[in-house]
Amino acid sequence: MTISLDAFFSSTADTPIAKFHAPLKMALQEHYEAKIHGRTSEWDQALASLPVANFEHIDLSQERVTIPLPSGWQLDKQALKENLMAFKPWRKGPWHYLGIDIDTEWRSDWKWQRIAPHCTDLTGRNVLDIGTGNGYFLYRMLGAGAKLALGIDPTRIFLYQFHAAQRLLAPNNAHLLPLRSEHLPAFGCFDTVFCLGVLYHRRSPIDHLQELFSYLRPGGELVLETLVVPGDKYTILVPADRYAKMANVWFLPSTEALENLLQRVGFQDVRTVDINQTSVQEQQATEWMTFHSLEQFLDPNNPELTVEGYPAPLRATLIATK
Ligand SMILES: C[S@@+](CC[C@H](N)C(=O)[O-])C[C@H]1O[C@@H](n2cnc3c(N)ncnc32)[C@H](O)[C@@H]1O
Questions:
Q1: Residue 7 within a domain
Q2: What are 7-41's pLDDT values in tens digits?
Q3: Strands 190-196 and 252-253
Q4: How far apart are the CA of 135 and the centre of ligand 1, in A?
Q5: For the chain, which terminus, N or C, has the lower number of CB atoms within 10 Å?
Q6: Which residue, by CA, sits nearest to atom 24 of ligand 1?
């Protein structure tokens, strides 16, 4: 079984996105419906065992995206926790889910706190989040006033995590489509495009920046967060093999080199608004993500370096206008 994505199509039927419904449906047919993940039936079963509700309110005032346990609800908390654990690894969060704290690998709220103050006010904006993960940031974007928060992410388990939350909520304007950015049409209509933690995974970074450009309306804003390295505008690190044990890292520019690339692609008013060295408090293994994490990716004798001897993860946020 595949999770239904009908809510996205019905809630965007009267928006400028409707004219892209046909290519999106074709992409979903090819890359989602026709490709069944080996763990689908296990995940379907776990999802079906979670409660369903129609809560209008989701508490976004705290670090955790919080769906509180309503008074009067009797739940077997241990069973609920085991059910949610079926969707491990939980990487992005934290969440509070009907009385259960989901302590994810990442403190994504820290990233949001670094980024949000620099963005143009999201009130009333149509927002696209490329590589959204499990949708944690989509709720943050709605909480900041976005009219529509559309996330794109091909990793199937994250779609299940997102729907674990969605099945408790009344119809809302957060949506996740299990696609890659390469599968998207050139929308040309989004007010803000977020691309957080994805650029370094792309083999062809300039093509990726052009894709991001194509999703925005003229005057729209790109919020780009990625791994960078210290250096001048000519510095770009292409790891010989792995970077911080990740096999799929291709391209780590300096902030100056990245600003230059964004300008070459056609962006204006390009600026670096934040630079932050990732700490082992922000990215760490938890009971919800039990694989190795940042601590194991760093040189045990020198936390300024990865185990491969490259500069340790440094993340920058850049903002630019189309
Ligand atoms: C490092 S995580 C970043 C998640 C989140 N944006 C954040 O900043 O915490 C990278 C995410 O990008 C997704 N991803 C990888 N390649 C992608 C692509 N071509 N298009 C869209 N998403 C992609 C992965 O599935 C993963 O969830």
A1: no
A2: 999 999 999 999 999 999 999 999 999 988 889 99
A3: unpaired
A4: 11
A5: N
A6: 131
